[in-house]
UniProtKB/TrEMBL annotation:
<dbReference type="InterPro" id="IPR003439">
    <property type="entry name" value="ABC_transporter-like_ATP-bd"/>
</dbReference>
<dbReference type="GO" id="GO:0005886">
    <property type="term" value="C:plasma membrane"/>
</dbReference>
<feature type="domain" description="ABC transporter">
    <location>
        <begin position="2"/>
        <end position="238"/>
    </location>
</feature>
<keyword id="KW-0813">Transport</keyword>
<dbReference type="InterPro" id="IPR003593">
    <property type="entry name" value="AAA+_ATPase"/>
</dbReference>
<dbReference type="GO" id="GO:0016887">
    <property type="term" value="F:ATP hydrolysis activity"/>
</dbReference>
<dbReference type="InterPro" id="IPR027417">
    <property type="entry name" value="P-loop_NTPase"/>
</dbReference>
<dbReference type="GO" id="GO:0005524">
    <property type="term" value="F:ATP binding"/>
</dbReference>
<protein>
    <recommendedName>
        <fullName>ABC transporter domain-containing protein</fullName>
    </recommendedName>
</protein>
<dbReference type="InterPro" id="IPR017871">
    <property type="entry name" value="ABC_transporter-like_CS"/>
</dbReference>
<keyword id="KW-0067">ATP-binding</keyword>
<dbReference type="InterPro" id="IPR015854">
    <property type="entry name" value="ABC_transpr_LolD-like"/>
</dbReference>
<dbReference type="GO" id="GO:0022857">
    <property type="term" value="F:transmembrane transporter activity"/>
</dbReference>
<keyword id="KW-0547">Nucleotide-binding</keyword>
<comment type="similarity">
    <text>Belongs to the ABC transporter superfamily.</text>
</comment>
<comment type="function">
    <text>Part of the ABC transporter FtsEX involved in cellular division. Has ATPase activity. Essential for cell division and viability.</text>
</comment>
<dbReference type="Pfam" id="PF00005">
    <property type="entry name" value="ABC_tran"/>
</dbReference>
Amino acid sequence: MIKIKGVSKEFKQKKIKIQALRAVSMEIRRLEFFGIVGASGSGKSTLLKLINGLDDLTAGEILIDGDSLKDINKKERRRKIQTIGMIFQQFNLLQNLTVRQNVGLPLKVQGKKNPQKVKEMLAFVGMEEHINNYPSQLSGGQKQRVAIARALTTAPSILLCDEPTSALDEHNGHEVMKLLKKTQEEFGTTIVFVSHELELIKQWCNRAAILEEGRLLAIVDVSKNQVVNSETSYYQKAMDYLT
């Protein structure tokens, strides 16, 4: 489904080079609930943006269903990117649009109108009663549900989730995770879930990649029976907890 081969990303800030990712390689399987975990600044969000075509690689390549994003033409690249949905930590809803308009926005960008699809996705996330509300009238958990509905209107085969629960309380965070699992099971969506919270990775993911300072340190099959030792490094803590 997703092959990441020797991917590096370099930024420049005031003539200083910052290596956000360093020769990262991994494969994310179809229908997987795959976690990417690491401390702040480890390169998690940068990697998601590269997968979604929101930023350009410095080196390496990313293949989606066998197609390299850097080798296909602009039209085909756009079509490929449209098979990928994304949800964010801060919801990214447009405040001047209603819930209906926010959820229908990806379809509008593609030149499509499908009001029935919008209603179906809002029903799927349990937000159909709020279809005419504005984001300012919603709680944080409700906003994230709307963001998920928006991401699903184009029927993506891959859903990238960038810290989607970090702005929520424990209850709403758990409800969002259940909704992501439901999305995977009912729509056959591959979920790529970025978080610094080891508990969420352990509870919901099949496998997880551990990043540290832009490097891939390990990919682990997630198990359910270890305890975090908070005195160790983040990498060792993750390995102890997830394996």
